[in-house]
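Re: that backbone. Tokens:
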């Protein structure tokens, strides 16, 4: 199910490089969260363990090394040398099944365990459909659907990237969709978060950082300093490259308190991943204007549960107000007639250097979607004065 160590999302590699540089002694724990309450078939954990064990054989090839060195110029040669020697260690993963319930835990040094999340979710998704006998649609139908979406993106004048590795129907389907979007997408399909497929089809690999970057900073530096220092450290590592900032780890309103003129100028834009996208656009435009920055020089990347219709609606609202781009995930890579799994793997505990284990949490712009330890959520709200 995994054909390359680069069959992963770019933001995992870019965060890994930053972690190697800044936090090499910090340890973390991740946990699988089955939001949809999916019942997994008997023997699922055993089959998943076999796949996880097989990942230990993956390594960076010379071709992949040369690709990263040329295309991902912001990754230092020292990091690429590290990645060449990196191997997945299955002992970092715990997989337990109790009836239909599946538990997956990950623990170890952050710089090592950070790469597990995306491929494990992709394998869980593909293995589930395989073991439950869900075939999806034919290859011709997959191509037809993807080509139609590419034509719609082009007619709507919007730029779209594939963000669908984690909940894809299968690697084969993902590969076919990306190829089709490239063949039919012209200027509308701008790239993919999947580094392996970006290399395979010579499209742009896309990604910066995820919520875990900010969540770690909250454990090490406290909630009040988390956003500011997460942004500062990102700039320290990338010096202006990879300039899209994720905004909603502790709600967008709190994020904008730290996203002052310095960061607003240094970063090319922001990514929206929860809440009302139109309201987010209004807040973002207002924030840039309050800093005397022309919003048309900045970009919002929308990536929250998008489909074609929703992306077009958002684009129409933002047109001539602020630049936009869209990262569409499950609706691109798992639009084959089955019900996609509703699951995530989240950072849950951090042991920063010199600290004890600390629970970490995420506050969403979507009411009721906060995640993590309830006492820590209450503390965060109290500290940041969130009602």
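Recovered sequence:
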């Amino acid at each position: 199910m995994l054909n390359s160590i680069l069959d992963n999302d770019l933001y995992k590699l870019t965060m890994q490089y930053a972690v190697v540089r800044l936090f090499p002694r910090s340890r973390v724990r991740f946990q699988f969260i089955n939001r949809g309450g999916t019942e997994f078939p008997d023997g699922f954990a055993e089959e998943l363990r076999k796949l996880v064990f097989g990942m230990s054989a993956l390594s960076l090839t010379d071709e992949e090394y040369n690709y990263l060195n040329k295309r991902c110029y912001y990754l230092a040669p020292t990091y690429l040398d590290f990645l060449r020697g990196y191997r997945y260690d299955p002992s970092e993963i715990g997989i337990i099944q109790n009836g239909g319930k599946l538990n997956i835990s990950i623990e170890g040094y952050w710089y090592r365990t950070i790469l597990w999340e995306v491929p494990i979710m992709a394998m869980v998704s593909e293995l589930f459909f395989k073991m439950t006998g869900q075939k999806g649609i034919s290859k011709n139908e997959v191509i037809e659907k993807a080509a139609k979406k590419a034509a719609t993106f082009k007619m709507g004048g919007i730029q779209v990237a594939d963000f669908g590795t984690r909940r894809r129907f299968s690697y084969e389907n993902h590969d076919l969709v990306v190829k089709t979007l490239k063949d039919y997408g012209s200027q509308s399909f701008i790239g993919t978060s999947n580094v392996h497929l970006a290399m395979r089809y010579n499209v742009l690999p896309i990604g910066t950082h995820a919520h875990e970057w900010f969540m770690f900073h909250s454990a090490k530096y406290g909630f009040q300093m988390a956003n500011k220092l997460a942004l500062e450290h990102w700039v320290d590592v990338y010096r202006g490259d990879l300039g899209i900032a994720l905004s909603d780890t502790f709600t967008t309103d709190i994020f904008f308190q730290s996203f002052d003129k310095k960061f607003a100028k240094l970063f090319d834009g922001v990514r929206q991943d929860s809440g009302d996208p139109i309201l987010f656009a209004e807040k973002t435009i207002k924030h840039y204007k309050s800093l005397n920055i022309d919003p048309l020089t900045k970009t919002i990347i929308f990536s929250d549960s998008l489909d074609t219709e929703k992306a077009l609606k958002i684009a129409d609202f933002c047109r001539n107000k602020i630049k936009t781009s869209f990262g569409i995930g499950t609706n691109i890579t798992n639009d084959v007639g089955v019900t996609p799994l509703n699951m995530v793997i989240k950072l849950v505990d951090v042991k920063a250097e010199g600290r004890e284990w600390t629970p970490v949490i995420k506050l969403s712009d979507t009411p009721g979607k906060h995640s993590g330890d309830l006492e820590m959520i209450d503390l965060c709200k109290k500290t940041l004065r969130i009602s």
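The mean pLDDT is 97. Residues 139-156 form the longest helix (18 residues).
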